[in-house]
Write a structure and sequence with these properties.
Elements lengths: L17 E15 L4 E2 L3 E2 L3 E19 L8 E6 L2 E2 L4 H11 L9 E9 L10 H19 L5 H15 L11 E4 L13 E3 L12 E5 L10 H6 L7 H21 L2 H20 L10 H17 L4 E4 L5 E5 L4 H12 L8 E5 L5 E2 L1
Parallel strand pairs: 5-7
Antiparallel strand pairs: 1-4, 1-14, 2-3, 4-7, 4-8, 5-6, 8-9, 10-12, 10-13, 11-12
Helix pairs in contact: 2-3, 5-6
Bound molecules: ligand DP6.
C-alpha cells in the first residue's frame, strides 16, 4: 500500500481562527484512460490527460476554529448557492480518507460553497474538478498552519489528496499535460499523485483544442466506482492494463515528436477500448448513444475528405470530446456548427482547450 508518511502534516499550535479561501480547479480529459483501481484509490495502470481550461469548479472554503476538536467532521455544503445534502456523503468519506494527512480537519467547522462553470447535469464529470478544488483550498489552510512546506511538496500533496477524493482529480492540479500512475519510462511518476508530463512537448500540441459535444446530458448509467469495480475479474483486464502501459510509452514519444497521426490512433483506440471494457464486463453497459456513433463517423469522414488531424475521445458516457490543433480552429468550428451540432442535445457544446490547472481566486 506504500508509505505516505511524508504527506502527514505536523500538528501545529498555530491555527488561524477563521477565514476563507477561494480557488478554481479544472476538469481534465484522459488520453490514456484510468479504468480499474485497487485500495486505496490506486490505479491499475498509469493514465495521461490534458488539463482543461474552461470547464472548472470554483470553490470557497470558509473555516472557523472550534474551541475543542470535535468527534466528527463539521461542514456544510452549498452547490450553486443551494444546500446540497446529496453531495455530503462523498465529502464525508473524502474527509475520512484524508484526515490522517490533514490532522486539523476536526479542529474546524467548514462551509464549502461550490459551483461549476459548465452546465448543470451536462454529463461532464465534475468529480475531477470538484475534488481537486476542495483539496486545493484545504491545502491553502494547511500551508498557513505548516508554512515550511515547499512549493513542490505543496503541489504533490494537493494532487495526493485530490486522488483520495477521485482518481482523475489528481490530474487536475497542474497542466497542460499530467501523468498519474507509476511507469518506468516516465521519470518521477507515482501511483500516489500525478506529475506534470516531464518532457518537452512538441509545439503541435500547444493550445490544443477540446470541443465537448453534449450528446446526452442524462444521469450517468454507471458510476465511476461501479465502473472501476467491473475491471476486477474482467476477462480482458490484464491485457488492458498491459496495453495502457504500452500506450503511455507511445504517447510519450508522440507528444515529444509532434506525430499527430500517431496521436489520433492512440487516443481514439483508448476511447473505444474504455467502452469495449464496459461492453464486455458483467454486468455490461453500452454508454454510447446512436448520436455518439454518428458523430464518430462524421469525424472519420471529415478527416478523410480534408486531411484534418481532428480526433475524438470519450469518457464513461455518451458525450464526445473533439480534440484538434489550434491551427485548425476555424475550419473545425465550421464543421462542428454545420455537421455536428444536430447530434447535440439542445444543440449544446462547450469550446474548451488545454489549460494550466488549479489556482487561487
Ligand atoms: C473514464 O476518477 O471518476 O474518466 O477514482 O472512482 O473517482 P474515481 O473514478 P474517476 O474515473 C475516471 C474514469 C475515466 C477515465 C479517466 O479520467 O482516466
Amino acid at each position: 500500500m506504500g508509505d505516505y508518511s511524508q504527506f502527514v502534516s505536523k500538528i501545529s499550535s498555530v491555527k488561524p481562527d477563521k477565514g476563507s479561501i477561494s480557488c478554481s480547479s479544472p476538469s481534465n480529459i484522459a488520453l490514456v484512460k484510468y479504468w480499474g483501481k485497487r485500495p486505496v484509490q490506486l490505479p491499475e495502470n498509469p493514465s495521461i490527460s490534458f488539463t482543461l481550461d474552461i470547464c472548472k469548479t470554483e470553490t470557497t472554503l470558509q473555516y472557523e476554529k472550534l474551541e475543542n476538536a470535535s468527534e466528527d467532521f463539521q461542514f456544510e455544503l452549498f452547490f450553486e448557492g443551494e444546500p446540497k445534502p446529496d453531495f455530503k456523503p462523498k465529502i464525508q468519506s473524502f474527509f475520512q480518507r484524508i484526515s490522517e494527512y490533514i490532522p486539523f480537519l476536526k479542529h474546524y467547522k467548514f462551509i464549502i460553497d461550490t459551483s461549476n462553470t459548465f452546465p448543470h447535469s451536462s454529463g461532464i464529470a465534475s468529480s475531477a474538478s470538484g475534488m481537486s478544488a476542495l483539496a486545493y483550498c484545504l491545502m491553502q489552510l494547511d500551508k498557513q498552519i505548516n508554512p515550511t512546506i515547499t512549493e513542490e511538496e505543496y503541489i504533490q500533496k494537493t494532487s495526493f489528496l485530490s486522488r483520495l477524493g477521485s482518481g482523475s482529480a489528481s490530474r487536475s492540479i497542474e497542466g497542460p499535460i499530467t501523468v498519474w500512475g507509476k511507469h518506468k519510462e516516465v521519470a518521477e511518476s507515482s501511483d500516489a499523485y500525478a506529475i506534470k508530463f516531464p518532457y518537452d512537448v512538441h509545439p503541435n500540441f500547444t493550445n490544443y483544442q477540446d470541443t465537448i459535444l453534449l450528446v446526452d446530458k442524462g444521469e450517468k448509467q454507471v458510476s465511476s466506482s461501479v465502473g472501476h469495480d467491473l475491471m476486477h475479474g474482467h476477462p480482458f483486464s490484464s491485457e488492458r492494463f498491459k496495453q495502457a502501459n504500452e500506450n503511455i510509452i507511445r504517447l510519450k514519444d508522440i507528444l515529444m515528436s509532434g506525430d499527430l497521426d500517431g496521436f489520433i490512433e492512440v487516443v481514439e483506440s483508448e476511447a473505444l477500448t474504455l467502452h469495449a471494457m464496459m461492453m464486455t464486463s458483467l454486468p455490461y453497459f453500452v454508454l454510447m448513444k446512436p448520436n455518439t456513433l454518428s458523430v464518430i463517423n462524421k469525424i472519420w469522414e471529415y478527416r478523410k475528405e480534408t486531411g484534418s488531424k481532428i480526433c475524438f475521445t470519450l469518457d464513461a458516457g455518451a458525450n464526445v470530446h473533439i480534440l484538434y490543433p489550434d491551427s485548425e480552429k476555424d475550419g473545425v468550428m465550421d464543421f462542428i456548427k454545420s455537421e455536428l451540432v444536430v447530434y447535440c442535445q439542445k444543440g449544446q457544446y462547450i469550446c474548451d482547450k488545454i489549460g494550466l490547472g488549479a489556482k487561487l481566486l
